[in-house]
Design a protein that fits this description.
This protein has about 60 residues and is mainly α. The protein has one domain. Helices cover about 60% and strands about 0% of the residues.
């Protein structure tokens, strides 16, 4: 599910977690950024958190301007 627009996310993480993330991403032939996205999507799905489609987000922005 590729989007034409992306947002930058910068954060600090324990080096051992970063290494584990790198290994997990490599094992699934993913980039680290894509692996983080997959993990977030999986977490949201498991906990019933809806992720709106990009067009829904854009429509909401237009309604509130």
């Amino acid at each position: 599910m590729a989007n034409s627009k992306t947002a930058t996310l910068t954060f600090r993480i324990d080096p051992t977690l970063k290494d584990a993330l790198r290994i997990a991403a490599h094992a699934e032939h993913r980039s680290i950024a894509n692996m983080i996205e997959v993990l977030i999507r999986d977490h949201c799905e498991q906990h019933g958190i809806a992720i709106p489609a990009p067009e829904q987000v854009e429509n909401n922005k237009e309604e509130h301007t």
